[in-house]
């Protein structure tokens, strides 16, 4: 399964376009580690998708359905200080990692961002890892990033969120429940070139970017390697 965030025209292009806003807290003195920010963004997307307000007749459910009926767009912006406090006052969910805080909001029309989110910066979301992340456990779902692309932290956060969402769509109800109850454990890592070649042809969920920002249209950015999906393919 591939993301529908591609350049190929689809029926979803005719639907009103929505975007899922994510805001990462980046204070000058204590910025989060890059990998932790990526992982926290992916968990934030999963947390919103599984929240009661996004399901059935929940208050966010129609917006989530409208967003998923169109292209699956996510935009990551950054905030600090008073900006972050204003963002936290808006309806949404804050997910905390080891060093990162990411707030995810219900989808909004592409040109209808709340004022306090619209004024936040998109560019300049550059983060580093103080030390290389450890190899993930074999039982941990991994969102593998392409080794061939140079993405800002904000772009990579959005792509990790896409990958998590594609995995979520493919999981059975039982596997979704297990993931929720475990607290959405996951890892984001850059694949070695030989692993990446195998991953993109594995049949696991694959994100192809639409090319709106930073990278070429159709670029393969993320493969979602969830153990439950690997078992389905043995």
TrEMBL record:
It comes from Streptomyces tauricus. This is peptidyl-tRNA hydrolase. Its EC number is 3.1.1.29. It catalyses: an N-acyl-L-alpha-aminoacyl-tRNA + H2O = an N-acyl-L-amino acid + a tRNA + H(+). Keywords: Hydrolase. Pfam families: PTH2 (PF01981). It comes from the Bacteria. GO terms for molecular function: hydrolase activity.
């Amino acid at each position: 399964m591939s993301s529908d965030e591609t350049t190929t025209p689809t029926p979803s292009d005719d639907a009103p376009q929505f975007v899922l806003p994510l805001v990462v807290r980046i204070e000058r003195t204590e910025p989060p580690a890059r990998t932790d920010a990526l992982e926290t963004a992916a968990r934030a997307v999963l947390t919103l998708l599984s929240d009661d307000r996004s399901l059935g007749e929940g208050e966010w459910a129609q917006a989530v359905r409208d967003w998923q009926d169109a292209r699956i767009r996510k935009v990551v912006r950054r905030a600090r200080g008073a900006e972050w406090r204003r963002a936290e006052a808006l309806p949404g969910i804050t997910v905390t990692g080891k060093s990162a805080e990411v707030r995810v909001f219900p989808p909004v029309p592409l040109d209808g961002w709340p004022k306090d989110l619209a004024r936040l910066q998109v560019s300049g979301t550059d983060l580093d890892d103080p030390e290389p992340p450890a190899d993930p456990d074999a039982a941990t779902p991994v969102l593998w990033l392409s080794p061939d692309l140079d993405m800002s932290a904000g772009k990579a956060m959005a792509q990790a969120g896409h990958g998590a969402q594609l995995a979520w769509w493919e999981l059975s109800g039982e596997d979704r429940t297990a993931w929720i109850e475990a607290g959405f454990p996951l890892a984001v890592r850059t694949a070695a070139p030989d692993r990446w070649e195998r991953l993109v042809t594995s049949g696991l969920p694959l994100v192809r970017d639409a090319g709106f920002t930073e990278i070429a249209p159709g670029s393969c950015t993320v493969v979602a390697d969830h153990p439950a999906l690997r078992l389905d393919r043995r």
